[in-house]
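Appendix B. Chain record.
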Amino acid sequence: MISHRLRTARAAAGFSLRDLESQIDNLVTAQALSKYEQDEMMPGSQVLIAIAKALGVSEDYLLSEQEMSLDGVEFRKKAKMSAKEQAQVEAQVLHLVERYLAVEELLGLTIEWDKPREAPYPVLSDVNEADRAARSLRQDWGLGLDPLPNLVELLEERGIKILSIMADKVDGLTAKVLRPNRTSLPVIVINSADWAERKRFNLAHELGHLVMDIAPGLDCEKAAHRFAAAFLMPAESLWNEVGKHRTSVSMAELLQLKNLFGTSFQAITYRCNDLGIIGEQLFKSLFEIFKDRGWRASPFKEPGAISPEKEKPQRFERLCYRAVAEGALSEAKTAELLGISVRRLNDRLDHPEAAVSFA
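Structure tokens predicted for this chain:
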């Protein structure tokens, strides 16, 4: 039955029932579409093909009996969102995860969640305990204290599905993907429009939500911020670079630290203040400079901008190219999974410079 898949695909497309009725040229009414979604009727082949085309999916996708759902969804929002807007984002995420897992399973390359053995790390009385959680995670995953060159690839290797979507009101999202008779998988969603430094910090922030157990009454967002800073910039590494107490810091030094840790001037300054390396007066002075130079507002053009490609999820796309090369997927199916035309797919396959990563 197509009810679950149809509701998910329609929500992901942002269509109401009447919108979908219009998109399929009124082949059936909104009332009939509602009955499909309630498992009270099944569409004929002509209507099924039209619905699939309108929603950008295949008929096989709509007819598949595999069901997945999202659990424990937590949004990090830029602005207030309606229930409908949140539902649309959740549906889009579920839709992308289903495609991702289908390609993994087809190739026999599914990566299960490498849950840290000590997680969830308790944060009981103070958000500063998030530092300890970040240090414990690095230890559990054997990461040492070195800077992390590519956070997306690291998290994908540990079994966390990373998705990038266009969502004006969302900075990030975490959830668990529930699958029948299978273990759940964590997913982190980032906004593809964000600057790369922010993406890195948001990834670490959402990771904090996944691995910490924050006591009621504590500010969860502050704890996740503290975790992200500590995970990306371990105290020992930062002390080695800048010392334990400073009364002045130059822009040139901040640029070098940015290049080393892959974090913004602002994140570095916050971290130095949290660790007591710099005091409140210097902290405020630096942020006045950032404001005067336009670095605190969009498009956040700090010096030494990290390449947008550096923290863009690419594993799903790589798997799609591998599947079509090995004959496991047709060109038409691969193009559908990537959300592009067959002609565009062939351009990418023949001319790598055209292979702009799928977001």
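Further analysis of this model is presented in Appendix C.
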